[in-house]
Amino acid sequence: MGKPIVGWFEVTGKDGPALQSFYSKLFGWEVTDAGGGTGYGLVAADEKGIAGGIGASPDGGAGWVTFYVEVDDPAAYLAKAGKLGAKTVVPPSEVPGYGITFAMFADPEGRVVGLSKGAVQ
């Protein structure tokens, strides 16, 4: 794999459907249900854009906006980030049925960044 690229974005908050409606109306994005009763919506990438997701935050809290960098080994990059002063927020986790592994870390100033493998098809 070449240099890692930003391959996914995510917007979460207290009211997933309201956020989906807002971004759909604002940008004209088509948001499709990811299935499984999660209320999570998927936004397809346009020609020069990246795909993403919009939904409720897992803990029901205020949520976040983050980007995910596509890498070949999320665990290795998470370990490297840790050596550079980051803290693990979410260890490598697989998304069942999608062939995607993701992880999240907080950089030395506390900003949360995601890592993914398999999000860029």
Helix content: 10-25%
Outline type: globular
The chain-level structural class is: alpha+beta
Q: Regarding CATH, which class?
A: Alpha Beta
Query: What is the typical, i.e. mean, pLDDT?
Result: 92
CATH topology: 2,3-Dihydroxybiphenyl 1,2-Dioxygenase, domain 1
CA-based gyration radius: 14 Å
The strand line-up of the biggest sheet is 2-3-4-1-5-8-7-6
DSSP, total strands: 8
Number of domains: 1
Major sheet: size, sense and barrel closure? Answer: 8 strands, mixed
- What fraction of residues sit in β-strands? 35-45%
Any idea what the CATH architecture is?
Answer: Roll
CATH homologous group name: 2,3-Dihydroxybiphenyl 1,2-Dioxygenase, domain 1
Low-confidence stretches: none
Number of helices: 2
Report how far the terminal alpha carbons are from each other.
Answer: 13 Å
Order of helices and strands: EHEEEEHEEE
Describe the structure.
There is one protein chain. This protein is α+β, with helices and mostly antiparallel strands. The chain has a single domain (5-117), classed as 2,3-Dihydroxybiphenyl 1,2-Dioxygenase, domain 1 (Roll), CATH 3.10.180.10. Helices cover 18% and strands 40% of the residues. The protein has helices at residues 16-27, 74-83, and strands at 5-13, 31-33, 41-43, 51-56, 65-70, 87-95, 100-106, 112-117. Strands 2-3-4-1-5-8-7-6 form an 8-stranded mixed β-sheet. A hairpin with a 7-residue loop joins strand 2 (31-33) and strand 3. It is globular, with a radius of gyration of 14 Å. The mean pLDDT is 92.
